[in-house]
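New here. Invent one.

***
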Amino acid sequence: MTNKNLLIFILMVGVFGILNTEMGFIGILPYIAERYDVTIVHAGLLISLFALGVAVAGPTMPLVFSRFNRKYIMLLVLGVFTVCNTISVFAEDFNLLLVVRVLPAFLRPVYCSMAFTVAAALAGAKDAPKAVAKINIGVSAGMGVGGPISNFLAENISLTASMSFFAITTFLVMLATAFLVPSMPAEGRLTYGEQLAVLKKPMVWASIFAVIFLNGSVFGVFNYLAEYLASVSGLSPTLVSLLLFVYGLCNIFGSMIAGNLLSSRPIGTVKIFPFFLGAVYLLFLLGGNAFPLVAVLTVLWGLLAGINANINQYWLSHAAPEAPDFANGLFLTAANLGCMAGTAISGMFIEAWGTEYVVCGGLVFIVAAGIIFWSQCHKGSMNPALIPANEPV
């Protein structure tokens, strides 16, 4: 493994550790509610407030830290996550747990945006999508595997063991970063005003809304997937857990596929993607109660969700290549806003017509995203040949 590949691997594991901290709490909410004697809804604040912190910090914190040495900022972020995760293990008061849970959320976009930027810069313009796809593998693993791992540890060992896993992961990545990652000073970076100036570009705003719609289409439906599989498809709890785990694994493989697709044929991939995702949702709508079909569709959907994450980052970062850290921060905020908006709209379809129509929310969002993508492609504004590469680290 070359030094370049080693660095990208460390970044990938670091992103996994941070996303695992974020999403792993989903798998242990019932145990937290029991330990701290709070309702499951109250315990859910650990998830919702973290997401809100990420959405608020997305466009601001990466911008603030963009002019500092990236190695030291990464160590700072990993250190804060490690300390807060360690305090979480021993916290006896729920309010203290909530505080140390939310504080790292404001630094989550800093590490993730830098990981995307550094990986792309190390690989060069041609192979940047492949390098970014490796970082997204860490994202997919953290989001799709973190929950099942934390749940398994809490169920079979203890809640303390489960929460210790979060702290140990970020601590090990912090050590690897300290000893194996070289100094990365941000020399020749743009001023804050110059980075903010990208918001004057119509293409940037179009890309932000495209990411909101695309991510809303995927996660607005996914957040209700467990309920869908249980109530509409009639699957047992064991099968539901298995399919959710398979979905997470397929996210990882989807990210690997996306790296090659976006390196060789990015525009074609983006233009055809809405049709594939829309087709999957239509098939869910027509045959969601048949197990063999729903299992196949879950696999396909998982692969597409992995590709989706890479398209989102690719599109927005290429809309503002002159300010990569800020663009990646915007991507993270847009993705979180899309998740919240998609969940709300899909929830409205459930309340109006029933759980089987949750995919209608996904269809609405994917149509909106497809219109924006096709419009931008038609204008030629996202032609990779016309976009300068990210400046080197």
The longest helix spans residues 108-144. The two ends are 20 Å apart (CA to CA). Residues 383-393 have pLDDT under 50 and may be disordered. The CA atoms of residues 67 and 361 lie 40 Å apart.
